[in-house]
Design a protein that fits this description.
The chain is α+β, with helices and mostly antiparallel strands. The chain has six helices and five strands; from the N terminus they run αββααααβββα. The longest helix is centred in the first third of the chain and has 68 residues.
Length: 190
Amino acid sequence: PNVFGDSDVQTLQLMAGLIGAAIGHQNDYETNRRLLFEREEAIENLKQEMAQRSRMQQDIRASELRTRTIIESSHDAFISMDAQGIILDWNQQAETIFGWTRQEALEESLANLIMPERFRQAHTEGMKRFITTGTRQVLDKRIELTGLHKNGKEFPVELTIRALSSGGSYEFCAFLRDITERKLAEERLL
């Protein structure tokens, strides 16, 4: 027990302190190195995510452009409206068939713009019934109705409507076709 003298104990204590400090520095170095590596890895992952997000955004823009091109080049009128019956989209063929420009039609009531007055109440009630109960009387079916041109002239249209649910609300998309010539041909055949 008395092998070490006071100076030996002081030297051993000093050496123990130095060794402890060295071990602590080594642990700090390894911790800092690990944290730096993890940070670099996180930055690389973030760069990859950002690149992937950018590619996805480009894909979405390209898809939207394709869809817009298809809708605009369609021989059918394309009209979309929200759950309140307000027009959200109106293609070139809708302008041709109904006489209203896109700028005139957007944010207007579909029923007031292209439906004869005698059908407006039934349209409003049908939309309300679908929204509250899900009852589909005309959705996803090809039906014939009477359309109203800007000049007040009524004409037969063929219509297909689809409801899209998004965020707890509905949007309705419709393709319409003026079938005046077909109806005249049917009358001639009869």
